[in-house]
Structure formats: structure tokens, C-alpha cells
Amino acid sequence: MPDIALLAVFLPTFFFVSITPGMCMTLAMTLGMSIGVRRTLWMMGGELIGVAIVAIAAVMGVASIMLNYPQAFSIIKYAGGAYLGYIGIQMWLSKGKMTITNEQQTQVSRISLFNQGLMTAISNPKGWAFMVSLLPPFISPDKAVAPQLFWLLSIILVSEAVAMLAYASGGKSLRVFLSKGDNIKLMNRIAGSLMIGVGFWLALG
């Protein structure tokens, strides 16, 4: 299990990043409004499995490099911190617009919904870059990787599930909230600030 201090930093950071409107959250809200929350759960299941695959692949790939080249850990830590800071700045500069399609998907099968969520998570290059930069610095090379990955992955999946369920069940009310004023911009700036802070913490810690 990672240190409690690390989890205390990781949990709010990833939750705010998850709850910020993005590709998967927009998809969850659109489907929740068009086909209902119950059927949208199939898409959510596929998305969560896709996120788990990306997270595990990112950590195991970086972990193998760390085992063979221990000195690479510092490089990975600095690079990860710099990239998180870059993402945070991009979120701050975001204009906060949200694209919501009105495409009717009432006839889509459960398998299609599942595959849609799975492929959305796996084919998202930003998701891969985010996992590669965020997760490895929270893995201690002095401890077993599997237990640490289990706890981090649990936080990731719970955060993603809660966020997607909120978007899917919020439906029209959440859509109205996000379309008003600078609400999306505020959410992006909160998440961006956390990302910048964690980036500095990882690089300098």
C-alpha cells in the first residue's frame, strides 16, 4: 500500500480531474439523457475496464524500466511532474466549452455500448500520457508494485465511476449547470491548480 500521505495527495487530484468535463464524461451525460442511466452502465463498464488496462500497462511498462535502470526513476519523476504542470496550465487556459451531441442512440446494443466505452478509454492518447506521467511517481521502487497499484487503481476506478454516474444521472440539470457562465472554466481551474501543485510536489519532492 502506498504511503497515506501519497494517497492523500493522489485521491483529491484524480477525483477533480475525473469530474472535469471531458470525452468520457460528455459521453456518459449524452447517453444518460438519450438512453437512460441503466443502459449507460454498459458503456461505463467498458470505460472502466479500458482505464484499468491503460493504468496497468502504464505502470508495468514504467516499472520494468525502473527495475532495469534504477537511475531512470529520477528522470521519470521530473518528466512526470513537468507534464502534469503542462496539463494544469492547459486546463487553466481552457475556455471551458463543452461539446454535447444530440445523436440518438436508443437502438445501440449493450455490447456496442460496452465496446464504445472500452475503445474510448483505450484509444485516448491523452489518457495514456496522463497515466504514464501521474501513476509511476506514486509507486515506490522499494515496495512491491502490485499492492501499490491495487490501491491506486481502486481510487482511479471509484473516482471514474462516481464521476460518470453523476454525469449520466445528472442529465439535463447538469447540462444546464455546465452551460451557465464560467462553471466549466472554474472546474478546469480547480483541477488545473491541483495538477500544477502535484507536478511541483512530484518533481521537487
UniProtKB/TrEMBL annotation:
Report keywords, A-Z: Cell membrane, Membrane, Transmembrane, Transmembrane helix
Instruction: State the Pfam families in the record.
Output: LysE (PF01810)
Q: What membrane topology does this protein have? A: Multi-pass membrane protein
Spell out the InterPro entries in the cross-references. Answer: LeuE-type
Which GO molecular function entries does the Swiss-Prot or TrEMBL record give? homoserine transmembrane transporter activity
Transmembrane segment boundaries: 6-28, 48-69, 75-93, 148-166, 186-204
Keyword S-adenosyl-L-methionine included in the entry's annotation: no
Q: Which GO terms describe its cellular component?
A: plasma membrane
Q: Which compartment or compartments is the protein found in?
A: Cell membrane
The protein in question is named Transporter, LysE family protein
**Per the UniProt entry, what species is this protein from, by scientific name?**
Shewanella benthica KT99
